[in-house]
Write a structure and sequence with these properties.
The complex is a heterodimer of chains A (348) and B (231). Chain A has 348 residues and is of the alpha/beta class. Chain A contains seven helices and 16 strands. In chain A, the strands form three sheets. A nine-stranded mixed sheet of chain A has the order 9-8-7-10-6-1-4-5-11, with helices on both faces. A four-stranded parallel sheet of chain A has the order 14-13-15-16, with helices on one face. Chain A starts with a strand and ends with a helix. Chain B has one domain: HUPs (Rossmann fold, 3-Layer(aba) Sandwich), CATH 3.40.50.620. A seven-stranded parallel sheet of chain B has the order 5-9-4-1-2-3-10, sandwiched between helices. Chain B is globular, with a radius of gyration of 20 Å. The N and C termini of chain B lie far apart (52 Å). Helices cover 24% and strands 29% of the residues of chain B. The longest helix of chain B is centred in the middle third of the chain and has 14 residues. Chain B has 231 residues and is an alpha/beta fold. The interface between A and B is large, with 98 and 70 residues. Strand 12 of chain A pairs antiparallel with strand 8 of chain B.
Chain lengths: 348, 231
């Protein structure tokens, strides 16, 4: 039977949400097309009780079997020099048709090198479609199609896993946390970690990346430059796994690793060039938030009055203006709308 | 110490522009060599490299065989060029602005048998206590991985990639006259037999025209309800 490997990323000892999504996607394909889902977990030295906890979560997400490798080397950052040899060893052993990485930047470290080593195709930020293929008179079979945007966003690249006589390595978007899809406890197999190819590589120090939440977020709200207070007010209202990004933060390196499922663009950020937006997979959606028609056309703000959206004011900081700028107004409107939606949700 | 920067030709990607910025930040102990592939004698890559004070040489890899080289082959050729030029540190963009896959740097590192570090944030050469750069066989860098900024040291040679960035290119540190001339390197000089460059099957997948963007228009209230439903 064919194999699918789902790589599990841990952050501060916890399985990332995109990793659970990757396992769930592998489960979805396996249920349709027939395959065994292997989850690959790489950890530093870990107590058995912790290992059991992680295994239980992974199997609940949909894994049939869990491969776990534990060593000092694997406890550090997920780099090709530390993890690459293990991944290649697993791929050589299992010969999977698909090797999936979660969103969050780990694929940039491990994906391309693995693809080169095992002669696989590589797709970053891919979406997976499973569709039935009618082969009358033979029984219908399932086709697994992976697609991705070219970086230039001028077209898609598509690969039919069945047609390609090679494995496919792919990273997926940051999708939803699935309901329990697997058994409470899957089989765990310990895999020895091969010797490091470059043992001289040393980690000197590390610190938490304050912007790292951007890498994992499932939904992203995109705003023009706003005041700090307005941004903070909306952030306190946003649901979990949702990040607010202002155009000031468009250059944050962490943003380059983000692959949100949903991107909400506020009216004040409508003119943002698409090259500044995060990578989107074909399965992701962009929602352009519109102001109600009765607020249009915009008129210049009067002194001491809350500004409506205006072309001249777009993207300008409102901190020194004394009155709220268009971005601040948008943020306040969304915060209020979230409050109303919560009340409606609670009432229903 | 030779630091090689691979720039796409004729137009460098945002990521490889960032790579050039990082390479130029290594200081006077290094000699930055810019390598482009293609037949162009002009273009944004060369115009970008020429005024950079740290750039000592600009080399164009030129051969008719490049027309049939895929990204894996290109990585192999760049590795041969890095060996030929005795580069100790190789910088490249994490991915191109066209396909955006990042296979070329991975293939380069594979063929150079050098460690590959992606998402590199900063680099520097560790100086001895007396402030001198006595050990140029080790590079220290900060990489983003697993939600952390990790300071790592690696032996040389090493291949580093950087994420795309719109930050403006650094100003030249000094006015230099004359700017480095454009040199040309062929596959034969690298010892690569062009007749053996057989393209591999296309691993990029089939091309499909861009579909209409999935853009939906919603009010604030509708968007808020969608956001909450995603949880």
């Amino acid at each position: 039977m064919a194999s699918i490997v789902a790589y599990i990323e841990l952050r501060e000892g916890a399985i990332t949400r995109p990793s659970r999504f990757v396992v769930a996607e592998a489960r979805r394909i396996a249920d349709s097309a027939g395959a065994t889902v292997f989850a690959l977990l790489t950890v530093g030295p870990l107590a058995q009780v912790e290992m059991d906890r992680l295994a239980s979560e992974i199997s609940a997400a949909g894994a049939d079997r869990i491969l776990c490798s534990s060593s000092d080397t694997l406890g550090g950052p997920e780099l090709d020099v530390t993890h690459g040899a293990l991944l290649a060893q697993v791929a050589e052993h299992l010969r999977p048709v698909l090797f999936l990485f979660p969103a969050g930047g780990v694929a940039a470290h491990l994906g391309p090198s693995l693809a080169v080593r095992i002669g696989a195709a590589y797709l970053a930020n891919a979406s997976i479609t499973v569709c039935a293929e009618d082969r009358d008179p033979e029984p219908a079979s399932q086709r697994v199609l992976l697609s991705r945007w070219r970086a230039a966003r001028d077209g898609l690249r598509k690969i039919d896993v069945g047609d390609l006589e090679r494995p496919v390595v792919a990273s997926l978007l940051s999708g939803p946390c699935p309901p329990t899809a697997g058994e409470p406890y899957a089989e765990v197999e310990m895999v020895p970690c091969p010797d490091a190819k470059f043992p001289e590589v040393r980690m000197v120090a590390s610190q938490v990346d304050a912007a790292a939440d951007l890498e994992l977020c499932q939904s992203m709200v995109w705003s023009a430059r706003s005041s700090t207070a307005a941004a903070a007010a909306l952030r306190s209202e946003l649901p979990a796994e949702t990040c607010l990004v202002t155009t000031d933060e468009a250059e944050a390196p962490a943003l380059r690793a983000a692959a949100p499922r949903d991107l909400f663009v506020l009216p004040s950020a409508r003119s943002t060039p698409t090259t500044s937006l995060p990578s989107m997979s074909p399965g992701a959606t962009i929602t352009q938030i519109e102001s109600p028609p009765d607020l249009k056309p915009p008129r210049p703000a009067q002194r001491g009055e809350v500004a409506e959206r205006s072309e001249a004011g777009e993207g300008q900081s409102s901190d020194m203006a004394g009155a709220a700028g268009p971005a601040d107004v948008d943020l306040a409107k969304l915060a209020a709308a979230l409050g109303r939606a919560r009340v409606e949700g609670g009432a229903s | 110490m030779i630091v090689l920067v691979c720039l796409e030709s004729p137009t460098p990607s945002l990521a490889s522009r960032a790579a050039l910025r990082l390479a130029c930040s290594l200081g006077e102990e290094t000699e930055v060599v810019v390598l482009t592939v293609g037949s162009e004698t002009k273009g944004a890559s060369i115009e970008l490299a020429r005024p950079s004070a740290a750039v000592r040489r600009i080399i164009r890899l030129q051969d008719t065989a490049f027309s049939k080289a895929d990204f894996l082959t290109l990585g192999m050729i760049l590795a041969e060029a890095a060996r030929y030029l005795e580069a100790r540190v190789v910088f490249a963009g994490e991915h191109s602005d066209s396909e955006g896959q990042g296979i070329v740097p991975a293939a380069l590192a594979h063929h150079l048998r050098a460690p590959l570090f992606a998402r590199v944030h900063s680099v520097h050469l560790p100086a001895a206590q007396n402030g001198k750069f006595e050990n140029l066989e080790i590079l220290q860098m900060t990489v983003r991985s697993g939600g952390r900024l990790c300071k790592v040291t690696s032996p040389l040679p090493v291949v580093l990639t950087t994420s795309p960035s719109h930050t403006s290119d650094p100003q030249p540190l000094e006015v230099r006259n004359p700017a480095p001339a454009l040199e040309v390197l062929s596959l034969a000089q690298l010892g690569v037999d062009a007749s053996r460059l057989v393209p591999r099957p296309d691993l990029l997948g089939t091309f499909a025209p861009a579909p209409a963007e999935i853009v939906q228009h919603k009010s604030f209230d509708e968007a808020a309800r969608i956001l909450l439903r995603r949880q």
